[in-house]
């Protein structure tokens, strides 16, 4: 994904009308599992495609970080959605969501071990074999680290990307959350990653509860995250930066303000 799309937004049915009215929008993302194989595309998505807006399907259920092989039917669905949308790429998480047939219902962190790297690499390659487009991998926000990790986060992610030749979906809000909870410098991770592999970025809000910062997607993007966006763009400006909101949607004026703030922090034109 080399085209510079600028600032985008995650398409959700609840804010479809708002997204449709963004005159400068060139990039959006949709949760892949929300697109059903035998149903028409939502009208809002069809209208965006007719306008030439690139739409990326974002998977949440593959469980690329699980010890078990990815389920073929889920990979087939992701590939079909990408083809249906004419997507330039797809994305998924470096996480697991099921084990032994039990669904966690949430993205869970994996240990930064050599065995975990091998498992992720194997599952990504299984997925790539069926996809007609590149895949971007997203490291998640985690409230804890597994003990006795073999690798730090930078080395862990870099090895996975190099062994799979995958792209990177860098969630700046996740970087902020993880660093805040671990007591580390968030911008330091940028200097450990192959930033030229970034396909796009997520930017979202969060909130602190009981001494831990939670990546909620329901709060406004805080200034420290916007400052991180600027720090990232000073090193390497991603092709696209996406506002990620999931639930508790604010009025349109507040969403416009968040998109404008991301544009200002990144140096891209506003889409509003």
From TrEMBL:
Domain of life, source organism: Bacteria
InterPro entries, alphabetized: MbnB/TglH/ChrH, Xyl_isomerase-like_sf
Pfam families recorded: MbnB_TglH_ChrH
Annotated PANTHER family: UPF0276 PROTEIN HI_1600 (PTHR42194)
Protein source organism: Actinoplanes friuliensis DSM 7358
Name the UniProt record assigns to this protein: DUF692 domain-containing protein
NCBIfam families cross-referenced by the UniProt entry: PRK05409.1 (NF003818)
């Amino acid at each position: 994904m080399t085209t510079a799309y600028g600032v985008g937004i995650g398409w959700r049915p609840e804010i479809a009308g708002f997204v449709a009215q963004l005159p400068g929008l060139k990039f959006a993302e949709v949760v892949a599992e929300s697109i059903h194989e035998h149903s028409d595309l939502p009208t809002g998505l069809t209208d965006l495609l007719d306008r030439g807006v690139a739409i990326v399907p974002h998977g949440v259920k593959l469980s690329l970080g699980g010890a078990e092989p990815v389920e073929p039917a889920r990979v087939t669905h992701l590939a079909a959605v990408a083809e249906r949308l004419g997507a330039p790429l797809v994305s998924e998480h470096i996480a697991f969501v099921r084990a032994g047939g039990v669904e966690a219902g949430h993205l869970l962190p994996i240990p930064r071990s050599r065995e975990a790297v091998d498992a992720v690499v194997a599952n990504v390659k299984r997925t790539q074999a069926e996809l007609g487009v590149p895949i971007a991998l997203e490291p998640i926000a985690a409230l804890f680290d597994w003990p006795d990790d073999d690798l730090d986060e930078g080395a862990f992610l870099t090895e996975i990307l190099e062994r799979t030749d995958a792209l990177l979906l860098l969630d700046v809000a996740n970087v902020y959350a993880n660093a805040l909870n671990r007591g580390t410098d968030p911008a330091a991770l940028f200097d450990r990653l192959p930033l030229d592999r970034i396909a796009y970025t997520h930017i979202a809000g969060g909130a602190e509860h009981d001494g831990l910062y939670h990546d909620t997607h329901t709060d406004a993007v805080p200034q420290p995250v916007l400052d991180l966006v600027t720090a990232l763009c000073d090193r390497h400006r991603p092709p696209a930066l996406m506002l990620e909101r999931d639930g508790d949607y604010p009025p349109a004026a507040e969403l416009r303000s968040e998109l404008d703030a991301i544009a200002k922090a990144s140096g891209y034109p506003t889409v509003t």
